[in-house]
Known about the structure:
Layout: E1 21-22, E2 26-28, E3 31-37, E4 44-47, H1 49-55, H2 64-75, H3 81-93, E5 113-115, E6 119-123, H4 128-139, H5 145-164, H6 166-176, H7 180-208, E7 212-220, E8 223-230, H8 239-266, H9 273-290, H10 299-308, H11 313-326, H12 328-332, H13 336-369
Antiparallel strand pairs: 1-3, 2-3, 3-4, 5-6, 6-7, 7-8
Amino acid sequence: MSAAAPSGAADHRPALRPGILLSPPLLNGPSVVHLVKDPVSGASFEIGPKEYFLVSRLDGSRSLAEIGEAYGEAFGRRLGERNWQQLLGLLGARRLLAGGPAPEPAAGPGPQRTGGLLRGTLRLVADADATTARLHRFLRPVLRPVVLGVLILVCVGMEGVLASAAGELLEDLWWLLSRPVPLLAVATLLWLSTALHEFAHGIAARHVGGRVGEIGLRWRLPVAIMYCTVDNYRYLERRRRQLAVAGAGAFANLLFLLPFFGWWTALPAADPTGRVLGALLLLGSAQALVNLVPLPPLDGYALLGHALRVTRLAPASAAYLRLRLRDRAAAAAYPPRARRLYLGYGIGSAVLVLLLAGGAAAVVTYAVRS
């Protein structure tokens, strides 16, 4: 069954402006959506699978009649002239069509500094994407799959050794807390590890085709941390590339610990430096591994969302659970996959929070008793 094109425009071959970003399908509540973003204006919005079918084929090589024919075969229904007019009108109004009015460019990078003394941000790099590109070129030999695979295995081995010495490391941490000078040194190293974490997200994004928007310092006293924003990695087609960007920070934290782990293993048991290194390794491992917990705003939450192709997983799960409690019939209208995911995440995240709280309490109890 064919689909009608606007009168007199069946042979028209419209195209999206170069660079318009379209995301893979994402579950959002009961619906599947695609994100559309104009990188020039920075505007983005959601469309459904049928609209995506049409928009993704506006490449200038296919006529409206050809696209309409494919639409009819895919969805078994005729697309009327009014539907075409609405779609092209929407794209034209948003200035997404080639040959139309140019979009208003987004404001450039924000002010060098925003906020005040107690809370704010400071942009540190004028062109974050170019800076990250230079770092990526320097590190490219290390980013080969074979090298990364070896490093992952080494990190896993390190964490296995540290897990077997957890009791000793907890004693080292308790010892460190009463010694201000080495404690300050460990805190400084962990802060540097957080900076490396952020740069790793940007370098991984450059490696898989993403773009880095901004690098800077964000503070809410007494805490100040580096940040790195990646503009378009949510629109990468391949899931493993999104996962690589989201997981790069925690991986970098573990890599940061490797030389200290080698130093720690080489020291004699009685050397007090080993206690400082042991506490550093424990805290650094916790910093990396806690970041992989699938709770917002941690990287593990982003990893899970990308793996499942879900957007707004936590709020959508909460909304589904509330609906399920007050209106089971309405909740049953969700697709089966959405019901399973949202129920599973809602229950799983609650259990995870309880386990983390219990684990933290157990660690404090052990430390006090020691």
